[in-house]
Amino acid sequence: MFFIFDVETVPDFEFVRQVIDHPEENDDDLLLQASEELAHNKSGFLPPMYHRVISWVGLWIENNGMPKQKVSWHGTDEQEGLKSLFDALSTYKDFGLIHHNGRGFDLPLLTYRAMKHNMQMPLRLNHYDIKYRYSNDNIDLLDEFSNYGASSWPKLKHLGYLIGIPFKQTGEGNEVLAMFRRDELPEIEHYCYEDVMATYVVWLHLKYTVGDIDRELFDNLNDRAMGKLNEIQGN
Question: What are the start-end ranges of the H helices in the chain?
Fold first, then answer.
């Protein structure tokens, strides 16, 4: 079994104020200040340690790509959200992972936040099959398409455009904080679900392109996935 997943976050402003000297009082000003000091840029997006989880979505698929079950959570109690994710990941013993930039962001984030809440993660996440960069059980689309950093890293949205599919119509990642402030947590989860389905669709196209699945299976799975993606996007 493979678990295709994505995590949505907002900055942990309380923690950021602990690590920044003379922090700004206004959260938006603090975010820019922290971005320059902690990420050394002015994007306003912080490294994974300084985020907290507000939603996640996962899709269990069989090894041949057949979808099996969707699981998800959204809320303000991060410890509850982490527990629900770790419980979901305990469903199967030897699962694999599929994601877009999960190695760079989502997986380190989960480790940091589990440490913060004194929680134990599923042992599988620390297994060699998952930790080894070139593992066939932990598939990061950034690594797959960039040849493990030899080429540039593609955006998920651009991969969608490449294959003629519009992704991220619900909201961009930098809009999540604004959505959170408006108490739009169900909408954030919906956006997260779209990212997961987009990741699934791109992975299917990659599997067919490199010859891992035949045309008949690809057409069947892709038609079903596109139907669900169109439903999510309200098309």
Answer: 13-19, 27-34, 78-89, 107-116, 128-131, 141-146, 156-162, 176-181, 185-209, 215-233
Distance, in Å, from the CA atom of 50 to the CA atom of 183, rounded to the nearest integer, reads: 21
Q: What is the pLDDT of residues 163-202, one digit of tens each?
A: 998 876 555 656 899 999 999 999 999 999 999 999 999 9
- Helix, strand, or coil here: 54? strand
Per-residue tokens: 120: 């134990």
Hey, what are 48's tokens? Answer: 């994974």
User: For the whole prediction, is pTM greater than 0.85?
Assistant: yes
CA pseudo-torsion sign 224, 225, 231, 234: negative
Residue 131 contacts residue 121 (beta carbons within 8 Å): no
pLDDT of residue 152: 87
Report the alpha-carbon distance of residue 73 to residue 19 in Å, rounded. Answer: 29
Supply angle C-alpha 10, 168, 78, rounded to 5.
25
Q: Order of strands, edge to edge, in the sheet holding 51-61?
A: 67-74, 51-61, 2-11, 96-99, 138-140
- How far apart are alpha carbons 107 and 130 in whole angstroms? 10
Question: Please, what is the Cα angle at 179 between 176 and 183, to 5 degrees?
Answer: 130
| Residue ranges in the chain modelled with pLDDT below 50 | none
pLDDT of residue 111: 97
Q: What is the DSSP letter of 106?
A: I
Report strand pairing: 2-11 vs 96-99. parallel
